[in-house]
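Hey, resending since the last one bounced:
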Amino acid sequence: MNNSALSRHGLARRRAQLQDLQRYLHSQEDEFRELHGKLRAFVDRYVETLGSAYLELDALESQLHTATQYLAEALRRNGISARTPCAPQATALPTIPFLPATAPLPPEPAVGLVDLPPPSLKTLYRRAAMRLHPDFADTEQERQRREQAMMAVNEAYAAERRTQLETLLLAAGEDPVKVTGGNADALRAWLSRCETAVQGRLRVVQAHRVALEAHPMHQLWQAITRAESMGLAPFSVMVNRLHSQIAERRQELYIGQRLQPEPGLAEDFLRRRIERMGAHVGSR
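The structure tokens again:
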């Protein structure tokens, strides 16, 4: 098998490997999108079921914080040392990460594989002279640069150093096909860039898949799915628990808004509020 056939065979093999890699990447992206869609549906159900209760609880916590601030300030005005409870943090409704858009692959050389006999050494020399001859200079500085380049061209031609002539021509902007007779190197470089891009995208997809599966909402989704498969109703339990907390905060707010800034009950109320908020913040 000649060098031309070897080049074609190698390029065809690498192109087929790139296509296999792209198909695998697309399958991984499809799996991520399917998992993301299922988790998104669960998150929507979670927010629809519990979102209003969390908002009501957050509103009560905010009102309660305002009431306890007023009470603590009133106690301090009466000469009683009183700390102000920590401000409550709003409940963050769950969000899940999206997969970033992929960048397009670099464009393939338009002419495909070009495989021609390489030009003779004399042809390379003539092309180098046409590109680098000092008579084509526009400025004195450019003329000096061309003179130095032509000296290198003459030396390379005299010594029959084809590789050096090719390097000088390519540096001067000559079409690689006209220098080497083919563009196999350009196609190999394009395939390498495509392979790097697809492998990088695959790492991004796999990292996002791992992060999605480690997300707290994914774990909750799995737990609730298992519970519901056994005939349980975990969402009902969660709703009832939130309603119990709402009832407790309403009662606490009712008391806090009516307490007088005097020792005893008011101090005890603030102390319990501070303890609860400290434990609440620490659990987040």
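The longest helix spans residues 3-77.

Sorry for the duplicate.
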